[in-house]
Structure formats: C-alpha cells, structure tokens
Amino acid sequence: MRENDLLLRAVHRLPVERPPVWLMRQAGRSDPAYRALRNKISLPLERLFQTVPGPFSASEVEWVIEISLLPKRFGVDAIIMYHDILTPLAPMGVHFKFSPAPVLETPVRTASRIKGLRPLDDPVAQLKFTGEVIKGLRRSLDGSLPLIGFAGAPLTLAFFMIAGKSPMNRERGISSEADIVFRMMRETPNLFHELLSRLTRMTIAYLNYQISQGAQIVQLFESIADGIDRSLYESFAQPYHERIFAELSPNAPSILFAKECPFLDLMLKSGADVLSVGKCIDLKEAQSHAAGKVAVQGNVDNCVLRDGTIDDITKAVGKCLKRAGRVGHILNLNHGIHRDTPFENVKYFVEAAKAHNWSE
Q1: How many CB atoms lie under 10 A from the CB of residue 68?
Q2: What is the pLDDT of residues 326-339, one digit of tens each?
Q3: Is 232 exposed, middle or buried (0-12, 13-18, 19+ CB in 10 A)?
Q4: What is the pLDDT of residues 111-156, one digit of tens each?
Q5: Residue 335 contacts residue 281 (beta carbons within 8 Å)
C-alpha cells in the first residue's frame, strides 16, 4: 500500500479527502536547496540530463535522484523525475548542450538529416541512465509517493530540433527562432510529417520504457501548443498525440499537457487519461465535458506564484478548487514554475491545497 495515493485516485476519478497537488519544475531553480546542490555537483546540465553521448557514473545517477526528491520535503503528492524533454534525442544523434539554455550545434533542417536519425530500438541500452534514475527513485520513494515520468511531444521536439534552440520565450510565447519551423511546415509538409512520425515512434518507445522501469504516471509535454492555431494543431499535433496514447502500456495512466491550448474538444479526443489545462480553460467547463471520461489537472496561473502575495495565492487556489470540484482534479499550475518565483510562495501553494476546506 502506498502511503500517499491521492494523485492516482484522482486520475481514476475516485474520491479523495483533499486535492492532490504537484508542480511542473518543482525540482528547480526557485528552490535554494536545488541551487546549492547544483553548485556542489558543478556539472553542466547536459551531463545531468544526458543529452550528449558518453558514459555516466553512478554518482551522476544519485545526484539526479537527490534533485528529483527535493520537493518531497515540502509536501507535494508526486515526484517527477529531474530530466529534460531533449534527453531521448541523444540516441537519435541529436545532441543538445546547455549554455544555459539548450543549443544544438547543427539544427535538423534537411531531408538527409531527418532520414539519418537513428531509431530508439533498444532503450534499455540507449537510455540506460534514465532507467537507472527511475529504478533508483522507486527504491528511494519506497511506495511513499507516486513517480511521474514524461516526454516531449513530437511537434515540440521538432521545433527544438529545427530551430536549434528553444522556440519559446518564457515571457512572450513563440520566439523569432520558430519562423524557420513554420516555413518548413508550409513548404515541405511531407518532410515535416516524416520527422514527426520518427519522433512519435521514439516517444512511444521512450514512455513505455519509463513505465517498464517503474514510472507510475507519464506526462506528454506539448509545450508549443500556445503558439499554433487550430489548423496546425489538427495537422501536426493531434494525430501524433492520439497515436502515442493509443500505444502506451496500460500499466500507467497518462497526462496530456498542452500549454495554454484552447482546443478542449481535441484534447478530449487524444486518448490521455488526464488533461492538464491552462488558465485559458474554465475548469468547471472542462469538468463538465470530462466527467466519466478523464480527469483534469491545473490551472493556477504560474505568474500568481511569482508575483502575488500569500492572499493572492490563497484566492487563486480556492477559486481553482471550487471550479474543479472534488472529483477527478489534480491541482497544478498552468505551466512550470518561473525561475524567479519566491520559494516561500511555492511552499505556500502546496500548503494552501492541503488546508483547503471543501465546504467553503
């Protein structure tokens, strides 16, 4: 028996005594303990994320496990492994370095480069580091909290690979580096779909590998969703989401995170067990459509944690939980924690969830 299975019960729309809560980027730069540990480790992120080829040490695995577990001390209801969506691209021959943001020396922009991408046909060997981290986390958690694995969605990965760096600006959305990606969509759609197909096969293998190693929930990140219109989403995102969720192992439920995606009807058709919705979606409406089908996750504005007072956070959490109701909801943010978010606000967000009175 797990000591805390609130999240898994909420996923299955079972009764819970309080709302489960976790945060994207909960093990990250807002936490002073994380910054201290990173200074102690003194390794580049590409080593900790394994986005470049090469051997790894047992100590590197242990450091990633220690970082992943940091949020346990402030009461979250799940641990997500400290990793990056770019990690599984390394076995395909795409090696990102971080300086501090991810950079790819030779972006993937030609037919020959796409056709030369290696398949992820032996994840046990090709992604052994990830497997060791997951197994180590399960041993450390010893049933106390569920473990979340994750992957980037094919379209989001394609944007990174073609742009050669992050296509998103954290403050303003799509960056100018994404222009070349949109041009490739328009001018060579068949080639673009071939890239997405290759990435889809990799993502299915990668997530199923995580599940086989012990991940109890997996989340698919479509972090580019707020930068594309409905027609592009229907053509270049939706069919690949549906294929991925259809081919995942039934041994772990799945979450679709589509950043600030307003297309709730399409998300409901994805096949995911949980929809992580942004602040653009009214949770009461989402629950009315999801009832009896899927659970929902979200959707407190991450800017409230960064810029708001304790009172602001209390009100935002209360409003979110009132709109979501008591069944089938996981409290989270609309996106990841901003790097300059006061850590006290992060901790209070979790405390506010635990202190929430359903009768209010």
Answers
A1: 24
A2: 999 999 999 999 99
A3: middle
A4: 999 999 999 999 999 999 999 999 999 999 999 999 999 999 999 9
A5: no
**Which backbone phi and psi does 167 adopt, to 5 degrees?**
-85, 0
Return the bridge partners of 149, or none: 218
Strand order in the sheet with 147-152: 79-80, 147-152, 217-222, 254-258, 274-276, 295-300, 329-333
**Is residue 45 over pLDDT 80?**
yes
Q: Measured between alpha carbons, how far is 219 from 226 in angstroms, rounded to an integer?
A: 17
Distance CA 282, CA 298 (A): 10
Q: Which helix (H) or strand (E) holds 104?
A: strand 102-104
Backbone torsions φ then ψ of 21, nearest 5 degrees: -145, 135
Sign of CA dihedral 226, 148, 17, 315: negative
- Amino acid (one-letter) located at 63: W
CA–CA gap between residue 311 and residue 316 (Å, rounded): 9
pTM of the shown model: 0.96
Cβ neighbours of residue 309 closer than 8 Å, sequence gap 6 or more:
none
End-to-end CA distance of the chain: 31
